[in-house]
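Fig. S4 source data, part A: sequence.
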Amino acid sequence: MQQTRLFHKDNVDRTVAALVASQDGADQKQAGGEVAKKRLADAEARIRKSQAAIAAGVDPTALVEVINAAQAERVAAQAEINNTPAPDLMDAAEVYEPPWVR
């Protein structure tokens, strides 16, 4: 049975990748931000569709509630994106050279 030496020079890149991926919250960092970004994109798409409908001749008063709801959702999603603290995770560069070593 051959032993794998994690910190052997041939395994350093694989070990660093495993360390970065193993951090608590590494997958949630992307997931949470992606959900808010999708909500933002969806709200902006609804606003654009409403604007196109108005340009095509639809009565703007018929779209007031739709536009207001989309704008409120856009503001909420943007606020979530802007105010979500970044998790305190190390990236690969920091694993190769930790900040406390510099």
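Fig. S4 source data, part B ends here. Residues 43 and 70 are 5 Å apart (CA to CA).
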